[in-house]
Amino acid sequence: MELSAMLGCPEKAFRMPQGEWEESVTAALRESFALHSEKNAFYRAQCEAAGVGPDDIGTLADLAKMPLLPMSMFKNPDAHVLLTASLADVELEIRSTGDSGVPSVARRDATTTTRMLSAVFAQYREFFGISNGAGLFLSPSAVEAPEMGMVKAAVVLNGLLDHHAYVVRDYTFDPEEALGLLRTWGESMTRHIIGPPFLITRLVQALEEQGSTLRLDPDSMVITLGGWTRYTGQKIVPAEFYEQLDRTLGVPADRVRDMYGMIESNMLAVECEHHRKHVPPWSYVSVRDVTDTSVEVAPGKTGVIATLDALNTAYPGYVLFQDVGEVDVSPCPCGRTGQTVTFRRRLQGAELGCCAVSIEKFIDSREIVAECELPSLAPVEG
Questions:
Q1: Cα(141)–Cα(365) distance, rounded to whole angstroms?
Q2: What separation in angstroms does the CA of 15 have from each of 299, 324, 334?
Q3: To 5 degrees, how large is the angle CA 155–CA 156–CA 162?
Q4: Which fold does the domain 3-104+269-346 belong to in CATH?
Q5: 3-state DSSP call for residue 174?
Q6: pLDDT tens string for the chain (382 positions)?
Q7: Domain 118-259 adopts which CATH fold?
Q8: What residues does each domain of the chain span?
Q9: Rounded CA gap, 78 and 76, in Å?
Q10: CA gap 188, 86 in Å, rounded
Q11: Same fold flag, 3-104+269-346 and 118-259
């Protein structure tokens, strides 16, 4: 399938026979590679140094030859050299939270932005099947955090809903307000919860502390993005998370879906009902040897995750991240084909940072400060 057909017919694109998928993703990335190696002087120099060009990309195995951009390059002051498009053509900038002190900046031109939005919308329809209801977003709104990747992803989901509310404002979160909204909406709309696992955990813990339950609707979904490892290093265990949601909200595990993505890439891997994160057919995940990232390891082997993205015309969307995991190409019970990806941990020595981690750190810091404030003293008469 051609790229435009994949974006327009995701139900078919995600179910191509494996051989057709290999041909389609290779063709899409070869065309993308040809664009950047021709029009981007910086990237062309990397290709010449590696001795690789578009004619060398003929099969899926050849995709590993394409030079990668280390994620750290997006933090450099001169990151504009990565652009294939001109700065004047940049329509959108998405930034990381910069927990290390320096944020990443990923710029998109109009073509990339249109493709990215079309892809994300198509994946939401493919995996969630949502077309109505109310969304409780446990995140800041786009007004408060317009450049945050997690918030941008949430905005697209809003287009599928009848109503929504953001309940993280000025980096504070009141579980009682969130529970109140869910109870009110239950009279008229299917309720969905969207946010990082740590904040959803806070929500259900508040419910448990009340000694009550709040049963959502048969079609309700809980959708998560980031935040499985807290800034303290403590991990949220998925199996325990699913059990807690089922017990307190009546949402079964197959209605809880996680997503995996990074702001430097348009690749968003969304979970199916079997909790396998499906790589979209316009992207390819290349897992690299931890000791030599020029070497691609076989499916099932753990290594450093790199994503190759065919949607990006703004810059070469072939990025080596600091995440460790593996890919799987075995058949999924849901019937979708291609790759699935599993994220395990950050590379040793890499900073722990994502939108959700930044939000949690800030919320916790505000709560600690509030607890330490002295009560005001009444005036002494005398």
A1: 20
A2: 19, 27, 10
A3: 80
A4: Rossmann fold (3.40.50)
A5: coil
A6: 999 999 999 999 999 999 999 999 999 999 999 999 999 999 999 999 999 999 999 999 999 999 999 999 998 888 899 999 999 999 998 877 655 557 788 999 999 999 999 999 999 999 999 999 999 999 888 787 766 766 777 888 988 999 999 999 887 889 999 999 999 999 899 999 999 898 999 999 999 998 888 999 999 999 998 767 765 667 889 999 999 999 999 999 999 999 999 889 999 999 999 999 999 999 999 999 999 999 999 999 999 999 999 999 999 999 999 999 999 999 999 999 999 999 988 886 544 444 444 444 444 554 443 433 333 333 333 3
A7: Rossmann fold (3.40.50)
A8: 3-104+269-346, 118-259
A9: 5
A10: 48
A11: yes
Q: Which two tokens stand for residue 180?
A: 């109140």
CA–CA dist 378, 364 (Å, integer): 29
Contact 217, 187 (CB under 8 A): no
The bridge status of strand 105-109 relative to strand 90-95 is antiparallel
* Helices (H), ranges, the chain: 3-8, 10-13, 18-39, 41-50, 110-128, 149-158, 175-185, 197-209, 238-249, 355-372
Cβ atoms of 318 and 65 within 8 Å: the answer is no
Two tokens, residue 164? 């929504």
